[in-house]
Amino acid sequence: QPRLSELSRDDFPANFVFGVATSAYQVEGAVLTDGRSMSIWDSFSHIPGNIYDGSTGDVACDHYHRYKSDTQLMVDLGIDAYRLSISWSRIFPDTTGAVNQAGVSFYNKVINDLVHKGIKPYLTLYHWDMPQHLENDPEVMGWRTKRIITHFVHFAETCFKLFGDRVKNWITINEIWSIAVDGYGFGTDAPGRCSAVSGTKKKVYTGDSATEPYIVAHNALLSHAAAVKVYREKFQPEQKGRIGMVANSKWYEPFSEQKEDIHAAERCLEFELAWILDPILMGDYPASMRRFVASRLPCLTEAESKELKGSVDFVGLNYYTANYAQNIKEEVNPSSRWYSTDRQAKLGCVGADGELIGETMGPADIGWIYNCPWGLPKLLGWMEARYGKREFEAHPIIIAENGCMDLELDLSLKKALHDEMRVKYLNGTLQHLSNAIKDYGYDVQGFFLWSLLDNFEWSSGLVCRFGLYYVDHQRGNRRYPKLSARWYQQLLSREGMQMGLVKT
Ligand code: GBH
């Protein structure tokens, strides 16, 4: 067997953590098992037209029943850590506030199994699955009011108490940007609140996209900070773990060399990464957002700003791809302003010179990934410049997600297992990451590959596959290692490293 990986562990710092990532709704299934109640994704995925292939997360990868063999796959890969998320509505299924022991017991079993197998759990508290009862509660309305803070903190505290003896790495919330913009702006994600028309998909006018994405991000940020405060005060001294959050960002390249486009690219980074990271690292929203969104952007009080600033022990970054950003000059009617127009940039994959930004890495209609591994070091450099060497170095970084979907939707099993494209994409990311760490000394401490399994890819459904393992959703959810699984195994293997003779 020829060597697939151009890299080995030796290309990374000594204690660098390699892992894979998943999330509860995307893999677990068993949505009504053992007292779990509905989340907003259960409702959303069951509304016809919301999911590309009409699928739902009802069964997903059936990981709920197969977690033991799935952690064995992780052992086979040779990973150090597994990033998973907890389904809130398994722990608190109803308004009584009583903890559901069966839900707790499931996560205890998974965590114990991981620890037993020598794999460190990285636990995300919220990966997009708001309990439906909190969304419905007129007092709370999910992320739309500040009342969610108390609920989130209570949920977080319960998890610290129950699992914190074994879990030493916590992530409060995954991708606040996606929650806000895709859930309340474009309406392509749950809860599908949207008053803007995105692309060709006409959405039902339910929410107020002019304000809701900003309010939701604001309340999620405050919930994050409040949970971190509780962890630091009540649990960290004894449990000695660390807590962070995960932000996502594309890299934005100016469409042309014109000054306006350079500013537009900068603005896109501010409206995506800095929207979330500025409050956390500097205590306020980016100036460009305060200017362009104006009164629709909530203000942080002095106390809130103080609580937010420094509210992470590490920063998780999800990086997938890059886009060109072009300045938009046209005035927008004040009544139709929302996130997408506030940013005043047109995004695309072709630059002024006609060049594609990177190889296409997904099917035409739902693919959004271009192979741009060079964007990751640029993003890290941008963060260092923005937050200053001191702020930046005080907060180690983990790449909490990176990966790609298959190029075609209707793959035969044989073809799907031959995912050279994924191997190329991942080699690229890790090569650039390794160089960036060596050349610039960035304190990146880990890499989590998205994803272990072909899972429920949100509005793109089950046909959009990101896994190292193919999952045959039609036939009992059997798992099959793709070429990329063997690639990761080779990269991580300490023994077979030189010869590439790793058995699978
Ligand atoms: C992450 O989200 C999620 O954390 C994870 O659950 C998910 O499975 C994984 O990535 C793979 O998608 O405007 O047409 O360019 C990534 C969320 C999805 C948000 C794509 C931006 C861009 C669509 N991103 N979306 S487009």
Fold and architecture overview:
This protein is of the alpha/beta class and 504 residues long. Helix content is 40%, strand content 15%. It is built from 17 helices and 15 strands. The protein has an eight-stranded parallel β-barrel, surrounded by six helices. Strands 6-8-9 form a three-stranded mixed beta sheet. The chain starts with 16 loop residues before the first strand and ends in a 12-residue tail after the last helix.
Which descriptors would you attach to this protein?
GH; binds ligand GBH; 40% helix; eight-stranded parallel barrel; alpha/beta; single chain; 17 helices; 504 residues
In short:
The chain is α/β, with parallel strands linked by helices. It has helices at residues 24-27, 40-45, 63-77, 88-91, 101-116, 132-136, 148-163, 176-184, 212-239, 259-282, 287-293, 302-308, 339-342, 375-394, 413-417, 420-440, 483-492; strands spanning 17-21, 81-85, 120-126, 169-174, 242-248, 251-254, 314-318, 322-327, 345-348, 359-360, 370-371, 397-402, 444-450, 469-472, 478-481. InterPro entries: GH (IPR017853), GH_1_N_CS (IPR033132), Glyco_hydro_1 (IPR001360).
Give a topology summary.
Layout: E1 17-21, H1 24-27, H2 40-45, H3 63-77, E2 81-85, H4 88-91, H5 101-116, E3 120-126, H6 132-136, H7 148-163, E4 169-174, H8 176-184, H9 212-239, E5 242-248, E6 251-254, H10 259-282, H11 287-293, H12 302-308, E7 314-318, E8 322-327, H13 339-342, E9 345-348, E10 359-360, E11 370-371, H14 375-394, E12 397-402, H15 413-417, H16 420-440, E13 444-450, E14 469-472, E15 478-481, H17 483-492
Parallel strand pairs: 1-2, 1-13, 2-3, 3-4, 4-5, 5-7, 6-8, 7-12, 12-13
Antiparallel strand pairs: 8-9, 10-11, 14-15
This protein binds ligand GBH.
Ligand GBH is lined by residues 23, 26, 174-175, 178, 182, 248, 318, 368, 401, 450, 457, 466.
Protein name: Beta-glucosidase
Organism: Adiantum capillus-veneris (Maidenhair fern)
Family: Belongs to the glycosyl hydrolase 1 family.
